[in-house]
C-alpha cells in the first residue's frame, strides 16, 4: 500500500468492511435521524417551504431546457434500426460540456425518459469507476439491467428485502449469457440502452474491449449506446482505434451551454417577484463568479444558494416572519421574545428610529410591506431596463438580468456612469426600434396589473409611444441659426497643429447644434422622461429601505469561506494560531512567530520547520529544538544525548502527521534529513 | 463419411463466395475435410477485414453435420470461465444450467470434455481474435489434442497479429490471407452494385472511388461503407438529368469536393445523413471544446507555458521587477519550434501554480475549488497526471495542441506568444 509509507515503519491493517454490516449500520443511521428529527421550528419549516417551492421550479426549468436535447437523443436511440449486415451499435455521442458534477442528473433524466419511451428500453448507466476491467463493466451492466425492476421496492422497506433476494441475481452470475436468457423473456422490440457517463475518465482499453464485446452480441440483443463526452468529439476519434469505431454508428448531440442554464435559472426562478428569497447584489455576484470562473456547475450553484437560504433563516425568527404570509405575521410577531425585539431596534438600516414601544409591531409590519412593494417594483423596473439596454452595442450594463440586478442592488442604477452611456446610445435608436421597445415595456407593465405604480407607468409609456409615433422624421425644427455653420469652415487654415486640432473640435461642436428633427426631439424628451419619472421610481434599490437586512440576504463574509473552502489557508491558521480553532486560554499569541509550550505538537513542529533556511532539514536538530521547547527545564541540565523516549515519540508522531499533510517528505539525498515541500516562511 | 465430391462442391461454393482465395480455401479444405486425422492447430493470419472469420465460419457451416464446432470471439471472454463454458455449451449443445459444475480452469475444462467422451467425435474449436487471450491459454489450447488424446480435434486460431509474435512453442499450420490489391477490391465491390444502375456506371464510379481512396484505406468494410455513401452522391447529377450517364469528367468534378471531405473522415463511422453537415459541425465542436471556466482556461495556458518552456526562463519571463528582461533578448517562438516537435515536458504543481499566479491579473485566493480545477482538467484529458499524486508532489504534462491553446488564449485576450520561448 503506497498510501501508508511513512517516516516511521509500521504495519497497517485494512479491514474489509462487511457489506451486510454496512447495511445494518446504514439502516440504523436512518432510524436515528428519524427519531432525532428536527423539531418543527419556525426557521426550519420556513426553509423547507421556500426551498421546495424553488426546487420544484428548478426541476421544471431543468426539464424544459434539456427537453430538446433529451428528446432528440431518445428519438435516435429508440428509432435507429441496426441493420444486421453492418452490425453497428447505434451510438449517441452526448457532448455535455465540462461541468462534470451536473452530468449525473442529466444522465438520470435521460435514463428515466428512455424507460418511459416506447418500444420499451432497458437502461444501464455505467460510470468510469465501472471500467476498471471488462468483467466489472459487464457485471455492473447486467446486474443493473436484470435487477432494475426490483430497485424501487427494496429501497423502501426491510421486510421486502427477503422476498426480493430470491429474484435478485447474484453479481457473480451476471454474465452476458444470463443477459441473453433475460432478454428472451422481455417483450419483443425491447432495446437495451447503455449509458456511459464520463468517457474521458474511463480506461480506454477496457472501454474498447467492452464495445467490441457488445458488438459481438448485437445480433441477439439490440444494444444502443450513449457516450457522454465532456470535451469534443475529436476526443472520441483520438481515443478509439479504427476497428472499434467501425463498430459504432455515431451521431452527435450537443447540450446547451451551462451559461444558458444559469441565465434561465436566474431569470425564471430567483429574480422573480414571486420567489420569496431575495439575494443581495454582492452574494449574487459572488456565486455567479464562482460559477463562471471555477466550474460551470449548476448543481453547485444551486447548492450554494440553498446554503445561503439556510444561513439567512437559521435561528433568525425575524427573517422568517418577513417571508411568512401577511395574515400570520402578526401572531408570529407577538411570539417573539424581548431579545429579538431589541435586536430589531439595533438594525442599521432603520437609523435606530425604532423604539421598543407598543407601536413597534405596527411600524414593523408597515415597513416590511413597503419593502416588499419596493422589491416588486424593482423587479419590474429591472425588466424594463433589460429591454432598453440589453441589445445596445458593447452592452455597458451587461445583457443579463442578473448583471443589472447586482448593479442595481448596490446603488441606484440611474446614477451609474454606464447608465449614462446607455442613455446616449439609446438616443441614436431608430423610430422602429424604439417603438418595439416601448411595446415590450407596455407588455411587461400590463402583466403586473396589481401594482398601482405599474398602472400609472403604463399610461405614461403609452403616451410616450404615441408622441414618438406622431413625430415626423423629416420635419426640422427651425431653431438653430444656420449662418454660424459656414464660418469656421473657412478658417481651417491655421499655423500650428494644436490650433488646427482646436478648430476641428470646434467644428464638431458646431455640427452638434445642427437642427434637430421633430422625431429626434421627441426621442430625447421621452427617454429623459422615462428615466426620470419611471425608472428612477421603479429602480430604487431595496437595500436603501429600512429593514432590508431581514429580507435580502447580502451577508457575503459569513458564507464566502463556506461556499469555497480555502483549505490551505485554514491549515495555515491552524498551525500558526491554533487558538483560532481550539479556543483555549493558554495559547494566546503575542506575535505570529511565537512558539508556546502549550501548543499542539504538530504546530510546534510546523513552526520550527519554518525557521529552517534550507529545504533540507536535519531531523536530529529538529528534535533537539522540539525538546528545547517542549521538554521540562530539568532536561537541559541532563546529558544531551539522552532523549526522553516519550518526547521522541511525540516528535515522530508530529512529523508523521506533517508528512501526511504533504508538507514534508523524506529527503532523497540524505538519510537523516527531511525535505520541505512548501516554500516561504510566515 | 464425406465423399470427395462434397469436398469439391464445398471448395467450389466457397470460391464463389470468397474471391481470390483459391489457395487458402484449398489448403483449409484439405486439412479439415479429411476423413481420419485433423491437425492439432491451425493459425489463420491476415490484416483486418480480409475475410478470416467469415471464411472459417462459412467453411464450418458447410461441414456442420459431420463435425462439432465452436466459434468463440476472445473479446467476449473476459474471464476463463466464460471462455470455457461458451466452448462447452457449443460443443455439447447444452444450456448453462446443464453444465455439471463450474468450469474455472483448464483442468476442469478437459475433465468435462472427457466426461462427455468428446474423443469419439470430430471437433473444431475456433478462437477468433486470439491475441486477446493470455499467452498460457494459447499454448495449452494448441496442445489440446494431446490432452484429450484424440486425433479428431482441431483448434483454429484467428488473429491479425503475426503468428511469430506468439510463443514459438506452438506447432501450427499457418494460413495467411493477403490483403486485396486494388483490382481485387474493385472486383469485390462490384458485387455490391445497386440493382437499378447499369454495370458501366458503377464501374466508372469504382475507378474514381478506388483511385481516390486506395491510398488512405484498404479496409474492405470501410470501403464498402464509403462506397455506399458516395455512390448516392455520385449519381445525383444523373438523376437530375443534368448529366449523361457516361460523362465521367463532369461527374468527377461534381463529386470531388465530397471525396475530399470524406477522405478526411475515413474510419470515423460517418453516417449518410451527416455528410453534408460534417464540415461545419466540426468547427462548432472545436469551439465547444474551448468552453471552459475562466480559471480553467488560465490553468491550461499556464500548463502549456510550463510544458513548452524550460524552467530557466521562468525568472526572466515572470519576475516583473527584473529589468534584465528588456536587455537580454529572448528568442521568440517561431512556427514549428523545436520544443513543440520534442513534445511537452513534465512540470510540478508548484510551478504550474506559480505561473498561473504570474499570468492572471485578478487577485484570487488559492481555494479548494481552484485546486480542484487542475484535477478536472486532468480528468478531461487536457492535462496528463504523473506520479501517485499522494505524498509525492504530482507532475503534469499539458496535452493540448498549439492551435487549441491559441484559441483559448484568444478568448481570454491573452497573448501567449509573448511567453513562448524557442530554445
Protein traits:
heterodimer, A: alpha/beta, 3-stranded antiparallel sheet, 32 helices, B: alpha/beta, 9% strand, ORC3_N (chain A), DNA replication origin binding (chain A)
Question: What can you tell me about this protein's structure?
Answer:
The complex is a heterodimer of chains A (682) and B (423). Chain A has 32 helices and 10 strands. Chain A is globular, with a radius of gyration of 35 Å. In chain A, 59% of the residues lie in helices and 7% in strands. The longest helix of chain A has 38 residues, at 42-79. Helix content of chain B is 49%, strand content 9%. Chain B has 20 helices and 8 strands. Chain B has helices spanning 4-17, 22-32, 52-62, 80-92, 106-115, 135-142, 144-148, 182-191, 199-213, 220-234, 236-240, 248-263, 278-289, 294-308, 314-318, 324-327, 338-342, 349-359, 368-379, 402-411, and strands at residues 41-46, 68-73, 123-128, 153-159, 173-177, 347-348, 383-386, 395-398. The N and C termini of chain B lie far apart (77 Å).
Provide a compact summary of the structure.
The complex is a heterodimer of chains A (682) and B (423). Helices cover 59% and strands 7% of the residues of chain A. Chain A is built from 32 helices and 10 strands.
User: For the largest beta sheet of chain B, what order do the strands appear in spatially?
Assistant: 2-3-4-1-5
Strand content of chain A: 5-15%
Rg of chain A (C-alpha, Å): 35 Å
**Overall pLDDT score of chain B:** 80
What percent of residues of chain B adopt helix (DSSP H or I)? 40-55%
Shape of chain A: globular
Helical segment count of chain A: 32
Strand arrangement, largest sheet of chain A?
Answer: 2-3-4-1-5
Which consecutive residue ranges of chain A, at least 5 long each, have pLDDT under 50? 18-36, 150-166, 480-489
> What is the typical, i.e. mean, pLDDT of chain A?
78
> Structural class given helices, strands, pairing of chain B?
alpha/beta
- Tell me the radius of gyration of chain B: 31 Å
How far apart lie the N and C ends of chain B?
77 Å
| Number of strand elements of chain A | 10
- Beta-strand residue fraction of chain B: 5-15%
Structural category of chain A is: alpha/beta
Q: Please state the overall shape of chain B, judged from the principal axes of the Cα atoms.
A: flat
Number of strand elements of chain B? 8
GO molecular function, one term (chain B): DNA replication origin binding
Protein name (chain B): Origin recognition complex subunit 5
Domain ORC5 lid (chain B): 202-244
Keywords (chain B): ATP-binding, DNA replication, Nucleotide-binding, Nucleus
